[in-house]
Amino acid sequence: SASDAGGDDKTIRQKLVESGHVDVMVAIGTNFFYTRTLPCMLWFFDKGKPKERLDRVLMIDARSIHRKVTRNINDFSPEQLQNIASIVWLHRGETDRYLALIHDYLTQANESAVALKEPLARFVESMGDFVQHMETFGKSLSERNGEDEEAVSDFRNGLSELAESWKLLQYEHTATTKAIDTHAKWFGSAKLETNKQQHAAHDRFEPVSTQVRSLRKLADRVIKAASTCHDVATKKLASTKSDAWKTIDLRNLHKDLIRTPKDGDEENLRVMLLDLFKQPPYFQRQTHSMQSKFPEGKYTDVEGLCKSVDRAAIEGNDWSLTPSRYVGIAAIENEDDFDFESRIEEIQQELQILNEEAVGLASGIDESLTDLIA
Known about the structure:
Helix 2 (78-91) packs antiparallel against helix 3, helix 4 packs antiparallel against helix 5 and helix 5 (195-236) runs antiparallel to helix 7. 61% of the residues lie in helices and 8% in strands. The protein is an alpha+beta fold.
């Protein structure tokens, strides 16, 4: 509360502001400490401020910026830290540092897209073998008697969904690879020194990012359909007893394409691929986030995020150094820009943590009851 309290705290703040040494104030959200849930404030001082900034303080409200580590702990990603720092760079007129950061984001977006190609090709090839195997087994069902009709129907429905989504995946794979190659060829000789050039590069990569997101959704759809077919076949149709099931090494395909690794297991192709899918759109979003806030590549006040405040405004607010008093409230984000996939993953992680805690509590309760009975 030192940034906003009255009494002696207010007098101290007044003297600090009048000295001209208060440079930046950053409001941080809750759950950034292991032993405290309270929010905090970062104070940055600079005794060497140039004359034009001597009576100004940069207010940054970063309470909405964080990533979730556990249910009770938040932190900043490296990119979130750099984005906050870039606001300070622009405020100080260090435009070259801001442009270097955007250049880095554009480079990482391109490189991560290129890195996606090889494992994606392996996934498509392996999934092709898996689909062919499922189709072979599906044909053999008509020759087998005494099967559970409901299970057979479930398998065939799953196989139909698998075949349809697989066909779409093949088409999107070809289109995505072509888009990545075309962009990578252009990027190799592109000039990205100026803000205008970087905006053009962002716009040029947007179709690639959209293509990758679309392909990721199709890959998820194919994996789910493949998992359904495998589960029905192995659990309800005694598939392992069929000769049609033994045409390829299905165990390794299932392990690499469908199964979620347990703790201690090596990361399979499915997990690696789904992680690689996130990277190009992620760095594209970082670029868009900064360019949309500072379109001219120069500092400007952003509602709900940052504001450069002069000494008179601070005095008018009882010498308060709390950013939220000055920056206002951020506009509601357009849902089209909301990263639903990342949010769903966060929710899944939270659910997993809660389930683990529930198991631990249940075990503790059971032990306590056993001790009481004993």
